[in-house]
């Protein structure tokens, strides 16, 4: 059970990546809107990242009951849904369509895994007996999630960079 929780913890830590963008070169009025839009998308990503970290911290304390973990999972799931709605409700500046889609794809991915794989992991983690086969299956799930997430993150970062270049501002990772 502890090794399964360690796998879950490692995944969640790896799963939460955020980028903060600052404008270092404002060339046009459109760039101001683009920077504000980029920062709003990044803020949603960062808030979701914080929710993953809170969930991971609470899960790794090994003091929560199954009901408490399910409740915390529900909060994280709801937070991901709110992030998606907030991104969808932003005024989209010209040229941000690909970046917007990459952001929505990433958040939708989080919603999907929280609704499916995370529920399965929680069920196994709190079952009466976790077998070696269960642990192996969870490892495969975590590996698959990590690979998919990495692809989506790379696409998100690429589209964010393209959007920044097209809009006349530079990104800085913090």
UniProtKB/TrEMBL annotation:
It comes from the Bacteria. This is Uncharacterized protein.
């Amino acid at each position: 059970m502890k090794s399964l929780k360690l796998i879950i913890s490692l995944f969640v830590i790896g799963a939460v990546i955020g980028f903060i963008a600052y404008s270092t070169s404002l060339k046009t009025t459109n760039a101001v809107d683009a920077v504000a839009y980029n920062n709003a998308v990044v803020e949603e990503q960062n808030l979701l990242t914080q929710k993953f970290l809170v969930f991971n911290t609470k899960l790794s304390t090994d003091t929560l009951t199954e009901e408490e973990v399910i409740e915390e999972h529900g909060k994280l799931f709801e937070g991901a849904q709110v992030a998606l709605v907030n991104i969808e409700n932003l005024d989209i500046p010209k040229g941000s369509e690909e970046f917007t889609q990459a952001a929505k794809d990433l958040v939708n991915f989080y919603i999907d895994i929280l609704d499916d794989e995370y529920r399965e992991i929680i069920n196994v983690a709190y079952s009466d007996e976790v077998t070696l086969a269960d642990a192996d299956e969870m490892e495969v799930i975590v590996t698959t999630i990590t690979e998919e997430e990495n692809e989506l993150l790379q696409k998100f970062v690429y589209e964010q960079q393209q959007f920044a270049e097209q809009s006349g501002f530079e990104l800085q990772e913090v």
